[in-house]
Specification:
The protein is of the alpha/beta class. It folds into two domains: 93 residues, Ribonuclease Z/Hydroxyacylglutathione hydrolase-like (Metallo-beta-lactamase, Chain A, 4-Layer Sandwich); 128 residues, Ribonuclease Z/Hydroxyacylglutathione hydrolase-like (Metallo-beta-lactamase, Chain A, 4-Layer Sandwich). It is 25% helix and 25% strand. It has a seven-stranded mixed sheet, with helices on one face. A four-stranded parallel sheet has the order 1-2-3-4, covered by helices on one side. It is globular. The mean pLDDT is 96.
Length: 229
């Protein structure tokens, strides 16, 4: 927004990906962490350290579950000597959608998901146009989800499993591609992007086709692909 960027989750190669696609770390003011599983978090230490080496002075705000506080304290205690900028952890513990960022032309809402540990989704709304996008990380679908996402233009939703593994999806608190599509349809979304695929699927076409049977405007989250809201 106005040249500033939101980063959602910090996987292990986050810095590699930022460089690969020409995204400046200096333009990041807000990092939104969904939950504290490693595939969504392990890149945070390197990213914070590199920002310090780059001479960052602007404050950084990290919105994350409450337990991220201990992770940040560990980082600062052991690797924070060169950090000259302020890092503000904004703890999340809401039980329903709650506004966490309010800018002149944009607002960000956080809401709880249903995973094995505390996990939160995010919805960004551009106030001038009314357009919106949502990020639903690791979660099994739950009754309130379509209501909380009602009218969202673009939804990213995890789709870890295909129909044949629906029981495993529920056991692991994940979603199938079809379930993600049902959420998008019920929410009245315009487009759905699915990701977080299990490595068991060499051909992602099966996930895409199952989702499109319910919601035709479904697309795969592929590296480097850009979706405009």
């Amino acid at each position: 927004m106005h040249g500033r960027l939101f980063l959602v989750d910090t996987g292990e190669q986050v810095q590699v990906q930022l460089k690969r696609y020409g995204i400046s770390k200096a333009r990041l003011d807000n990092i939104l962490i969904s939950h504290l599983h490693g595939d969504h978090l392990f890149g945070i230490f390197g990213l914070l350290s590199t920002m310090a080496l780059d001479g960052r002075t602007a404050p950084l705000y990290i919105y994350a579950p409450r337990d991220f506080g201990s992770v940040l304290r560990f980082f600062l205690a052991h690797f924070g000597e060169g950090v000259k900028y302020e890092i503000h952890h904004v703890p999340l513990s809401m039980k329903e959608p709650e506004q966490i960022i309010a800018l002149r032309n944009c607002e960000v809402w956080a809401f709880p998901l249903q995973h094995r540990i505390d996990c939160f989704g995010y919805r960004i709304v551009w106030l001038k146009t009314g357009q919106s996008m949502a990020y639903c990380s690791d979660t099994m679908v739950f009754p309130e989800e379509p209501t909380w996402l009602q009218g969202t233009d673009l939804i990213y939703h995890e789709a870890t499993f295909a129909d044949e593994h629906v029981d495993l999806a529920h056991k692991m608190f994940h979603s199938t591609a079809r379930e993600a599509a049902l959420v998008a349809a019920a929410a009245g979304a315009k487009r759905l992007v699915i990701g977080h695929f299990s490595s068991r699927y060499q051909d992602l076409g099966v996930l895409l086709s199952q989702a499109r049977e319910v919601f035709p405007e479904t697309y795969l989250a592929e590296e480097g692909k850009v979706f405009e809201v």
